[in-house]
Design the sequence.
């Protein structure tokens, strides 16, 4: 109808539908062989099945109204309590289970914006974000109208705490630190930042979305880390995802606060709705019961010993990756990652790191690209333990191939990534990326593939050429 897809006139048998779904997955990244270094935290089929069973047993349950499904409220309370303990929170530490890290980060911004308005009358709110803050914080800035003030990095790619005092003012509603930050796996100087925030009377949130379910266990295993959680007095809230290193099913994160006085500003109550008096602790309306059940199940199943063992295996894989990359003369690890994430770039200017990425892709690996500085990324998990050797082998080959053929930097996705990261007119890049996304999301939206497969590559190339053309024209105009 009107060119749109139609429902099958008669429904299809369940088995046939499931078969079709399985076929859809064929072109997806091959995470089960651990060749993917982002997006999926995978252990094995047995764990996957276990999560599925836990999810299934509560998939119809709804956390929207925490007074209705007592089971879900009980799971939420237990999850938050365990986490408060792991994060060394005081006895009053409280919080909410959310659908993911982004929801947790959005909520922190909403909470502190509203708190600053209520307590200090702040009408033009600002927040201090290290430039490596997760992109969810920039999303929150746009959604909630809180202006980000960017805290630059020091030489080791840590947030430069010396510049923090100059960025805090009367409009500041929160200071953010990450443990660790996503791009390079570096833990920000939380202790020093917390002291400055506390002295200025500004709340400090620690984004431990990726670190929250591994740093505590790394410490229990004897690894010395700089203080990063509620042990730092200035830290007022922490986000920690269960669906990352907690190995829950997707859709489970947490936000905790040092006290209920903070959390109260997260709550939404509307007493005059014809549908009934309404109260909600987080962003979502319907909150999927399955996500709670799978998260609770994962935590109970692993227990402290299980998570410690996963952390140990992860850090073994991480150490092998870091040392293996550092031993390749043309490459260097970026910053000083604490694990479990790391990034690396080219030390040798004859090697284009994005072209190295293309070579890795061609060998069946899936790696993320970074910019400012250019790099490749690896989110290392316990399951990568078995593939680090193969990865490093392919990486060495990839570097040799790229070094021998510099033209590779101008082809494949390397050209696109290079262009996207280096064109100085960032607003133009933003517009072009928006166009590409709109192409994907228009009616009957097409698939976007940054690699060779037509027709999308044609789109990307055309954009890249256009951007390059504008850049040249702009340079000429400037003489
Ligand atoms: C993953 C991540 C987020 C966002 O979490 P999602 O679950 O992807 O929404 C936020 N902050 C950090 C540091 C992260 O690593």
Sequence:
């Amino acid at each position: 109808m009107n060119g749109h897809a139609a429902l099958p006139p008669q429904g299809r048998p369940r088995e046939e539908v499931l078969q079709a779904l399985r076929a859809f997955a064929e072109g997806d990244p091959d995470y089960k062989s651990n060749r993917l270094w982002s997006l999926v935290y995978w252990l094995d089929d047995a764990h996957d099945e276990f999560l599925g069973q836990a999810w299934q047993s509560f998939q119809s349950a709804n956390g929207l109204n925490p007074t209705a499904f007592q089971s879900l409220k009980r799971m939420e309370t237990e999850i938050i309590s365990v986490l408060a303990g792991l994060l060394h929170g005081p006895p009053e530490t409280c919080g909410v289970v959310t659908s993911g890290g982004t929801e947790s980060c959005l909520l922190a911004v909403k909470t502190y914006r509203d708190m600053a308005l209520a307590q200090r009358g702040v009408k033009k709110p600002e927040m201090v974000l290290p430039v490596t803050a997760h992109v969810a914080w920039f999303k929150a800035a746009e959604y909630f109208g809180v202006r980000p003030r960017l805290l630059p990095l020091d030489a080791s790619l840590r947030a430069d705490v010396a510049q923090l005092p100059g960025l805090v003012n009367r409009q500041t509603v929160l200071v953010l630190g990450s443990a660790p930050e996503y791009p390079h796996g570096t833990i920000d100087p939380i202790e020093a930042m917390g002291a400055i925030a506390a002295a200025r009377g500004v709340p400090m949130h620690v984004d431990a979305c990726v670190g929250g379910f591994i740093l505590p266990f790394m410490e229990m295993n004897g690894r010395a880390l700089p203080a990063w959680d509620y042990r730092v007095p200035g830290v007022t809230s922490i986000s920690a995802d269960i669906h990352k290193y907690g190995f829950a099913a997707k859709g489970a994160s947490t936000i905790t606060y040092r006290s209920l006085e903070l959390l109260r500003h997260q709550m939404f109550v509307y007493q005059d709705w014809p549908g009934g008096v309404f109260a909600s602790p987080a962003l979502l309306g319907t909150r999927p019961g399955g996500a709670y059940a799978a998260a609770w199940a994962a935590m109970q199943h692993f227990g402290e010993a299980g998570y410690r063992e996963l952390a140990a295996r992860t850090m073994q894989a991480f150490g092998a990756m870091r040392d293996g990359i550092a031993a390749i003369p043309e490459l260097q690890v970026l910053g000083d990652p604490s694990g479990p994430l790391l990034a690396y770039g080219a030390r040798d200017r004859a090697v284009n790191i994005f072209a190295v990425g293309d070579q890795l892709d061609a060998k069946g690996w899936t790696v993320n690209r970074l910019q400012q500085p250019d790099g490749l990324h690896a989110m290392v998990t316990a399951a990568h333990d078995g593939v680090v050797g193969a990865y490093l082998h392919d990486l060495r080959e990839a570097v040799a191939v790229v070094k021998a053929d510099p033209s590779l930097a101008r082809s494949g996705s390397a050209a696109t990534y290079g262009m996207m990261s280096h064109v100085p007119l960032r607003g133009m890049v933003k517009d072009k990326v928006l166009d590409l996304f709109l192409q994907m999301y228009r009616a009957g939206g097409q698939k976007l593939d940054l690699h060779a497969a037509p027709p999308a590559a044609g789109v990307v190339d055309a954009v890249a050429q256009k951007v390059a053309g504008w850049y040249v024209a702009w340079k000429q105009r400037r003489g």
